[in-house]
Structure formats: C-alpha cells, structure tokens
Amino acid sequence: MRKALAVGRKELRQIVRDRRTLMILLFVPAFFLLVYGYALSWDIRHIALAVDDRDRSPDSRALVSAFVNSSYFDLAAMVDSDAELTRLMDRNEARAVLVVPPGMSRDLQRGKTVAVQILLNGDNANTATTVMAYARTIVQTESVRRRVARGETALVPLLAAEPRVWYNPQLRSTLFLVPGLIAYISMITAVVSTALSVVREKERGTMEQVRMAPLNAFSFVAGKTIPYFAISLASAMAIVLVAMVLFGLPMRGSWLLLLAALSLFLVGALGLGLLISSIAETQQVAFQLALLSSFLPTLMLSGFIFPIASMPTVLRGITYIVPARYFLVALRGIVLKGVGPSVVWVDFLALSVFAAVMLTLASIRLRRQWT
Amino acid sequence: MTPAIAVNNLTRRFGDFVAVDRLTFDVQQGEIFGFLGSNGAGKSTTIRMLCGLLKPTSGTATVGGVDVGRDPEGVKRRIGYMSQRFSLYETLTVDQNIRFFAGIYGLEGARLDARREFVLEMADLHGRENTPASDLAGGWRQRLALGCAILHEPPIVFLDEPTGGVDPLSRRQFWMLIDRLSAAGISVLVTTHYLDEAEHCHRIAIIHGGRLAALGSTRELKQTFADRVILEIQADKPVEAMRLLDQMAEVEKTSVFGTAVHAVLKTAHHEAAGLVKARLTAAGLSVAAVAPVQPSLEDVFLEVAGTAA
Predict the structure, then answer these.
(1) Cα(first)–Cα(last) distance of chain A, in Å?
(2) Cys staple from B214: which of A111, A210, B105, B206, with CB 3.0 to 4.6 Å?
C-alpha cells in the first residue's frame, strides 16, 4: 500500500509537471461544457419567416407582430404570390411562411374560428417540429387574447394553427443535454487519461524499470489510477457546478447519491482505460482505442442525443453495454427529478457490473504482462 | 563463498525459437562480469530471466541465492537494474525521481535521506536536485539512473548496455563508478557493445546464437590465439589488400581494424610478415607497415562468433 502511494504521488507530480495533461484534465471538460452547452441546443431562434398576408387588416398585422415580437421569428419578406412564396422556400430564404387567409378580420369580428396556415421547411424534422410548436403557441396566445378582449371565456379558439398537442415548447433542452455532457466529458477524460498514462510508461521504458522493482501489479495500477480517479471526480463535480451556474441546472436530489453515481461511472471508465492500456503498445493506438470506445458510444448510444427508444433493434441491444446509458438515466433522475435510491438502483447495479467486468479483465491482462 | 549468480543449463524458448540455449556460468561476489554478443544473441533474454521478469523454459538460475523461477519477487529485492534506455521519469526532477524509486523499494526515513545523499554525491548532482531529468546531459542522466537502480543497496546489479549514446568521457566516469561498486563487493553483470569497455570486466562471456561461445578473463580469451600470429597491415588499399591476403595459403582469415587490416595466420609463422609485405607490394600496393600484434578482444570476438556460427 505504501508503494502504491509512492506510485500515486509520482503520478500526481507528473500530472502537475506535464502542463498539457493538466490542461486537458482541468480545462478541456469545462471548455467542452461551454461549447456544447451553448451550441448543442434544440432551442431554435431567429427563424426566417415570410408572410403572405391576404387580409391586410389591423388584425392580420397584429398577428404578424406577435410572431416577430416572440423573438423566435424574424420577418424575412412579405409576399403576395404563390410563386414568390415557393421561390423563397426553395432558396431557403424563408424557413417558415405564415399565410393569413382573406377575410380573417371579418370572420374574427363574427367570432368565427379562423385557421391560419403555417408552411414549414421540413428538411430538419426536429427543427420543424419545434418551429411548429412555437407558431402554434403564438397563434393560441393571440387567440386567447382576443377572446378575453371580447369579454368571452369560450374555449373554442378564435384562431387556430394546427390541431396538434405539443407538451412544452418553452422547455429548455439544455437541461436534458447537460447530464449527457457530464457523462460524455467524464468518460472521455477518465478513459483517455488512464490509458495514456500506462501506455506512456510502456513506451518510455519506465514500465520495464518499475517492473524490476519488488512492486506488484496491483500497487502499480492502484497508484496510477487513484490520482486520475480523484481528478476525474473533481472535474465532473466542477462540470455539475458550472452547469448549475451557467445553465440553471437544478439539483433536486441528493448530492451523496450524485457522488455515488459519478464514482461508480468513473471506476468503470478507469477500468476501460486500463483495459485499453493493456492492449495498446503506443500512445497513438491507446488514444484512438480510448476515443473509439468511449466517445462514440457515449455520444451516439447512450440516449444523450438520440433517443434509445427510436433506435433500430440491433443498436438498441448494443446500448445495454454502454455504461453512459445507465449513468444518464441515474443522473437525470437524481438531478432533474430528485429521485432516490429506490428508483436508480437498477442503473447503479448496471454501472457496478460494468465496472467490475472492466476491472477484472484489465487486471487479468495487466497481471499477465507484469510477470 | 557462494557465487552471486549461478546459472545452470538455463534455456528459454519462444515457440520453436531457442533464444537462450543451455547457458551455464557463475558470477562471483564483487565481480564485474561482461556479457558480450551481437544483437539478438540472447543477452537481453538472459538478463530478463535473471531479473525474474521471464520464466526459464528449463534449467535453473539463482541470483543472490534465490531461484529466479520460484521466487521472482525475492530476486527483485536483491538486484538493481539499469537498462540501455534511461528509465527515468523525464518530466520529474532529480529529487522526485530518487524519491519515487526509493518509494517503490520501500525506503523511508533516515535510510531514504542517507541513500538520497549517496546518489546525489555519486552522480555529482548536488545543486541540481530540482532540475527535470529531461534537462540533464547524457552522462548525468545515466549516473542518476544508476543511482536510482542501487538506492536499495542491492548486492547484485544488472546493467543492460548502460553506456549507449553517451560521450567517451562520461563513459569513462561511468566505468569508474562500476569499479567502485565492485570494490564495495557488489557483483555487476554488464552487457555492452563496446569491446574496449569489456576490457574493464574481470571476466567475459561471449554469447552467440543463445549459446555460451567463450568464457574467461580477457587474457584467457586472448590465449585462444596463443599458437597463431596476427599481423596488422597498413596499406593504401585495405579492401584490395584483404582480397589478396584471403588468397594466400598461410592466411586463415582477415578483418578490417580501423584503417588497418588484421590477418590471422594459420600457424606461428615468423617469416610471414615479410611474405605478406612482398606479396602486397608485388600487387602494386603501397604497404606502410606489417607487424605482428597482440590479439585484441575484437579479434577474439570475431573469432568466437565466427566459429560458433
């Protein structure tokens, strides 16, 4: 154990001395969070809107203003022919078109429900759905405002866009993304840094020197991983804090449970890193293996960006061996919903199994190489 | 006195390839034992077995009285090892390197301080404790690596091509350190490519094709040539001279030796010098000198490696 401490102390000193590694461990995660947190947003703003106002009344102008004032839409053009409308959509100069039917003002006066048409560019289904929801909300709000203005409480809308229900267009997608980012960033830093630190010793020949000492493989591995575990954990907690401050991530559950989830997840990641280090002989290979085994699955197959439920069966099957899948569920549960152990224990169990399998495989391989 | 290292029929196979073939030799306490051989001769494999990193396929070896196959951890406690690559942590300072290696050998307290002081003194690194190892010149780095390898005061030290890539002055200083270790009763097994360094060794083993091709002190090894004469020939066209010499019935073999050519004669032939000179001059070569010389270790090495092949 003392010897493991000697290795750990050395590793920490090396990390501190090696500015590059330190930067990667400390700042890249925060940087990632900033970049992804702001860029990877499903909130859509400034949609170029063309308006085909066939009513040309104060009422129709009020409706257009409601769209523009929402800040989701920018007025790109006023059109008055179908041909021009088509041209704008074709050239992507307008992503959405609001068509106000003739006689809207008159119909509204009579208390008749008027349907306004919203044309959407559907090349990005996600965007289109979101834009649709925005448009519907604006129209609905306008409708209610008019009813109230007329002193009515009837539930029949005066204005209708499209009769579809969307749960909450104002929902901030960042809150969904941040837990995913925490998983993604922690996984990459933990796997890459562990794998590289062992392979570097192989490459430089220091491993050979250390093997000549009466030091068993366990002390060596424990000494090497403990600093990375501590740093990864600190870095992951920092991400959580940054997310709370910058993105308003709520913390509705127990901090202890969060720490436990993070620890379990990181132990698994370190195990994966060690396993890679027992396979790779050069830092380059280790880096690629680490990226391939942590980056892609965590990004694609964890439910971070693409919902698992909508994946093909084969891919859905693969997600069961991606630790981030369970971590994400646990993390979202703890942070966003404030659930307790009775809910997340399944995910904790899965994370423990993953960590145990990784550590066992890695220790078998490393021990064989050690002697 | 029991030998520090006793090797008996030590063999290591990798599949069908026999890397080390029935090696048998002893290294005495305080002896500097040279291990010579070309690349791939089996030197490193032997050292790895003796250090407890690799299990022998058959045969036995005891290091410091401990069987390498049965108790590799026990062996590791009794040896120091320094390899051709300076196995220091380049980003760490001199002091941090010393403390790390002391840590994995379990040194602490007063003993750590004393040994740290010893290494700093031996490697002449006082005042450079906080220099990163990567900033040290080759000779210092090498001495620091040696210091780290003997921090725990092992009775036996393995040096695997310790002087590769180091300037001649540093090499000489390094050999003075090895002599000091030997004088203190520490056994040193050293492999080297430099034949002049081998002259520092008390005894030399020449390994060829995994086998022990020759063993003895440099003087004993040179006795191989006792019944023959080696002529050193200075001629203006050494390659042409070698071709002509190879055609002579009296010449067993020739080799290039610096700017000169060495010709090993089949028998102790005293008129040979005149004969050779006459022959070369007749062929139009300008011959500066032909004289019998004492065989060097290089002659021995070439001879032994040649016959064993």
Answers:
(1) 19
(2) B206
ipTM value > 0.90? no
- Tell me the backbone φ, ψ of residue A180, rounded to 5 degrees: -65, -40
Q: Which runs of consecutive H residues, i.e. helices, occur in chain A?
A: 2-17, 19-39, 58-69, 82-90, 104-109, 125-149, 174-204, 206-211, 217-247, 255-279, 283-290, 296-300, 313-319, 323-332, 341-370
State whether the Cα torsion B100-B101-B102-B106 is positive or negative.
Answer: positive
Question: Residue B50: its pLDDT value, please?
Answer: 93
- Residue B23 in 3-state DSSP? strand
Q: What is the pTM of this model?
A: 0.71
Residues of chain B predicted below pLDDT 70? 1, 86, 226, 268-270, 306-309
C-alpha to C-alpha distance for A37 and A172, rounded to whole angstroms: 11
Could you tell me whether strands B156-160 and B187-192 are parallel, antiparallel, or unpaired per DSSP bridges? parallel
SS3 track for B60-84: EEEECCEECCCCHHHHHHHEEEECC
**CA distances from residue A356 to A99, A118, A233, A362 in whole angstroms, order as listed:** 60, 54, 18, 10
- Residue A207's closest chain B neighbor by CA? B87
How many Cβ atoms are within 10 Å of A56's Cβ, its own excluded? 14
- Asked if A259 and A229 touch (Cβ cutoff 8 Å), the reply is no
CA gap B175, B270 in Å, rounded: 38
Phi, psi at B120, each rounded to 5°: -60, -40
- Gap between the Cα atoms of B128 and B132, Å rounded: 9
A87 lies within 8 A of chain B by CB: no
Which of these, A132, A137, A106, A112, lies nearest to A121 by C-alpha position? A132
Please indicate if any CB of chain A lies within 8 Å of the CB of B168. no
If we measure between CA atoms, which residue out of A325, A370, A340 comes closest to residue A201? A370
Q: How far apart are CA B33 and CA B205, in angstroms?
A: 8
Residues A127, A139: Cα–Cα separation, whole Å? 18
Give the chain A residue nearest B102 (alpha carbons): A6
DSSP 8-state class, residue B132? B
User: pLDDT value at position A126?
Assistant: 63
Tokens of B283: 């062929």
Half-sphere exposure (Cβ direction) of A148: Cα atoms closer than 13 Å: 6
**Longest CA span, chain A:** 94
- Distance CA(B173)–CA(B178), nearest Å, equals 9
Tell me the shortest Cα–Cα distance from A286 to chain B, in angstroms.
Answer: 20
> Which of A9, A209, A367, A369 to mutate: most B Cβ within 10 Å?
A209
**Two tokens, residue A325:** 């899948």
Strand-pairing partners, residue B159, are: B82, B190
The CA distance from B253 to A264, in Å, is 71
CB contact under 8 A, B105 and A371: no
Residue range A337-341: average pLDDT? 81
Pairing of strands B287-293, B260-265: unpaired
